[in-house]
Design brief:
With 249 residues, this protein is of the alpha+beta class. The chain has a domain at 6-174: Reverse transcriptase/Diguanylate cyclase domain (Alpha-Beta Plaits, 2-Layer Sandwich), CATH 3.30.70.270. Helices cover 59% and strands 17% of the residues. It has 10 helices and 7 strands. Strand 6, helix 5 (149-164) and strand 7 (170-172) form a beta-alpha-beta unit.
Length: 249
């Protein structure tokens, strides 16, 4: 079993976030190409209970994520797109110009297929572990709940959070889910004004900006990611050393 050193964890998280940024660019391109024609739906698929595999070491988690990615790819139609998150087990599926009932049926198909699937984790040369996990899925749609990748991904996350309350569920975002959060109630009038100005300037919704701030504040992965960016020279040296080590192996 392979466990990460802190500096390896920071490096991996940095690379994961770069992959997510690249995924946002892909999603924005799909939105630009399709929103003038019809809706674009986005699914956020997240494994339930994967922390048990992560506890076995990063190598076990990477195996799990790669198998999940391969399985999801095998389920996609030719006009669907998979956007992964590197070594994280959250994956987005983009469904351009698809009717809502087809989207829900496809999400249920994904959920039931993963529920029946057996993941196989190789722990060492002689030991393998068979794992059965479920997924929770959040569904959102553009332009109703966002016209750019950042807004759409955060509304998908809101739907996923609702699905995660019971796990192994599919939830479609709606106005009642968004209004039930009532994030603005924690802000002063001045903060709300600043937020609205920022939203207008960036083309984002105020809700997704608040959600992004909360996500960055409480998600330890994001906290480490920003620590890594602030210490850019340290990261650069770390990456160079890692590359040299890999060349010598």
């Amino acid at each position: 079993m392979l466990f990460e050193k802190p500096e390896e964890n920071i490096l991996r998280i940095y690379e994961d976030n770069k992959i997510i940024e690249e995924g946002q660019m892909v999603l924005n391109r799909i939105l630009r190409d399709n929103l003038g024609i019809g809706k674009v739906h986005l699914l956020l698929v997240d494994l339930d209970g994967s922390s048990e595999v992560r506890a076995l070491g990063i190598n076990a988690k990477v195996q799990l994520v790669e198998q999940m990615k391969a399985k999801l790819n095998s389920l996609l139609d030719s006009n669907y797109y998979l956007i992964d998150s590197g070594t994280r087990d959250e994956m987005f599926i983009v469904l351009p110009l698809t009717e809502e009932d087809e989207v829900v049926n496809f999400a249920e198909y994904v959920r039931s297929t993963i529920e029946k699937h057996q993941f196989q984790i190789k722990l060492d040369k002689n030991k393998k572990l068979n794992v059965h996990l479920t997924v929770s899925i959040g569904i959102t749609a553009a332009p109703t709940f966002g016209t750019n990748a950042a807004d759409l991904m955060f509304t998908a996350k809101e739907a996923l959070n609702e699905a995660k309350k019971m796990k192994n569920r599919t939830v479609t975002i709606n106005e009642s889910i968004i209004s039930s959060r009532n994030y603005k109630s924690y802000l002063s009038e001045g903060q709300i004004t600043m937020l609205e100005n920022l939203a207008e300037h960036t083309g984002r919704t105020t809700d997704s900006l608040i959600l992004e701030s909360i996500d960055r504040l409480f998600n330890k992965h994001k906290a480490l990611w920003y620590w890594g960016v602030e210490n850019w020279e340290y990261y650069k040296e770390l990456k160079e050393n890692t590359n040299e080590t890999q060349k010598s192996i």
